[in-house]
Amino acid sequence: MDICEVETRRADVEDLGVARLLRDVRPDRAAIEAAVRTLIAATGDDPHREGLADTPARVARAYAEWFAGYDGDPAELLSRTFGETTGYDEPVVLRNIPLVSTCEHHLAPITGHAHIAYRPNGVVVGISKLSRLVDLFARRLQLQERLTSQIAAALDEALSPRGVGVVIEASHGCMSTRGVNQHGVSMVTKCWLGEFKTDAAMRAEFMASIRE
After folding, report:
1. Element (DSSP H or E) covering residue 24
2. pLDDT for 84-126, tens place per residue?
3. Is 87 left (phi over 0), alpha (psi -120 to 50) or beta?
4. Do 36 and 59 form a contact (C-beta atoms < 8 A)?
5. CB-CB contact of 122 with 83 (8 Å)
6. pTM of the full predicted structure?
7. Per-residue pLDDT reduced to its tens digit, 121-140
8. So which residues are the catalytic ones?
9. Residue 90 per-residue DSSP state
């Protein structure tokens, strides 16, 4: 069983049930700011000096934006579909979707692009929803492998399409700013469901389209 199949089964429990429970125990703004002051002090700097005095509040606001994905529901996001497709059943591809996420191992940034394809089975979804779906899952503490499969699983669950393909290309700050300190390295992850998993020609056409 590959990671896509595993995540397809776990998606609802892992993404919605746990996230909703955790929302009820989040620390308040004062606790977040106190934690940031502790981290600043850990660097050896003075969290109370002029240039850093307001940093805890800024970081708290930034965290609310960077991790807004925990408040989203992919099923609700994709709930509005359109059936007037006049029999269109060729793959729908949205490529080069900007992606910003955070590595759960070092809290370092992940930046790159996502490419999504699905072959409709009677209904389609507005293309902006595909971009919002990427953002919803990306704005959480993530592993790129899991992010890839979560996007695919959510689309498969909501639309019941004939197939889904997701490809993510991203650079990881935890590799470029620490450890091996290697720049210009990108990681590519893929998830294939339905016909994209069984039809090599469909996969090849999708991969070719995102290289054009």
Report:
1. none
2. 888 899 999 999 999 999 999 999 999 999 999 999 999 999 9
3. left
4. yes
5. yes
6. 0.88
7. 999 999 999 999 999 999 99
8. 103-106, 144, 172, 174
9. S
